Every structure is written in structure tokens, then in C-alpha cells.
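User: Structure please.
Assistant: Input sequence and predicted structure:
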Amino acid sequence: MGSHDTHPSHSAPPLPAPATQAGRDALDAILARPHHAVIGLDFDGTLAPIVADPEQARAHPDVVPALAALAPKVASVAVVTGRPPAVAVHHGGFDGVPGLEHLVVLGHYGVERWDARTGKVTAPPPHPGVAAVRAELPGILDAIGAGKDTWTKGIWTEEKGRALAVHTRRAEDPQAAFEVLREPLTDLAARHGLIVEPGRMVLELRPPGMDKGVALLQYVRELAAESVLYAGDDLGDLPAFAAVDELRSAGVPGLLVCSGSDEVPELRERADLVVNGPEGVVELLRALAARLNG
């Protein structure tokens, strides 16, 4: 993967080298003025390995130590996720950890925010369409599965408070189930003023107007950050990649990192740097923290 030799330090592990000039410029900017940098990170597939049951997802065991080493040296670490922030905080083990005072969780795509300094979540009232979809969804899934004895086996719905996610990863044919569900769930969402966010074998029904890109852009601008890194692994991270492109066009250097997945080639192709899943993300965070000690 190569190494990045800006400000070398004998004690620091090698930083992986971005494949693009824009990525290398952004890494240089982060290293030069880290206290003006925002490190944005998706949760599932980036900090936590993807598992069949999202309730069993936990951050890679080395994530918290790596973040605790890095967070005090940057303006902020922002975990940007579709999950409720309290769930991400619990699954990540972020609460009450010394060194994570500069960490926030922008949950529900930024609609809710958890701040490590206070340990509190701030949030507006929920969208009424979510309750309507919650009531109708079981009947729609039953109707789609009628006459297909094994078709709906393994398909399940995750309750996310401000959203609902229908997972097909455990189905007999996950991709076929995903494709069959996409249109009726899109219609259901539209009837109640919601949208469908596709992901890796999951269709999430949620309110419009916020996505990871909007959340990241607003947060970077709120902090008047001078550089940004964003790492993600899924289709839902493409808006955050687009937000980094927008920041670049406004003169804010940005580094796009793909937490490697062959399931989402669109993200790999857009990234300045591809790392080997959550383990590779941890290595990147460690290397960055070590370099900033130098």
C-alpha cells in the first residue's frame, strides 16, 4: 500500500499513501494543522465489521484506543451513521472514555447528535411518516411473500426509531429479495413522505432532507474546519463523498477513504485511499495519531 513520508518520525508506523493528488494534498493539510481537521467515520462496515444481525455489531476492539489517541489532536472526530446515536455509542463503546472528548456521533444521518463532552443527545421531533410506515410494513411484506413459501424467510425489519430498515442478508437469495422489495418499499415510503436508502442487502425507509453528506457538510462548516477525512464502506456513504468533493471545490482539502468492500465498487472507485475494512481503518487511525505525536 506504500507509505506517506510527510514529516517522517521513527516512532510512527507508515501512513498509507493516497492514490490521488487530491488525497495526498488533504493528508498533508491534516498533518500540518491537525487541530483544524475533522475526521469523519461511518460506523457499520468502517468501525465495526458487517454482521448478519446489526444488533450484534460491535466496533473493532482496537477502535476506541485508536480514536482516544487521535481525537485530542484534531478538531473533532465525527461518527456519521444511520443508526440512532445512543445505539452507535453503545455498540462503539464510546461513552466515558478519556481522550474522546472531541468525539460526536451524528446519528440518524445527522438528525440527532450525541456529544462526548456532555454525554447527551440533542434531537428534533420524529417525522410522522415513520409511524405510518411502521404500521403498514408487516402487511406489505406478507403480501409480497404470499405464495412464495421460502421467499420471506430470513427477511427482517430493524426498528431504528426515526427510521425502519428491511434486511435481506439472511434470505435464501439476498440479492433477489433486495430487488423484489425495492419498488414496493419505495412506493410505501413515498406515500408517507419518506425515502428509501439502499445499502448492503438493506433498504432503509427514512425521512428526506438529511443524509451523511448533509450531516458532514454542516458539521465541517460549523467547526470552520480547514481539512477533512471521511471513511465509509456503503452506498449511504456516497453523499458524504460528494460533500467532501463540494468542500474541495470550496478550497477545503478532503481525503476520501473506502473501508474496502467488493460489494460497493462505486465507493472504491471514488476513494483516494482503500483500506482493508475496519482493521485497515484502525491501522490508518493509529498511524495518523502516531504521526501527530511526532
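The longest strand covers residues 227-232.
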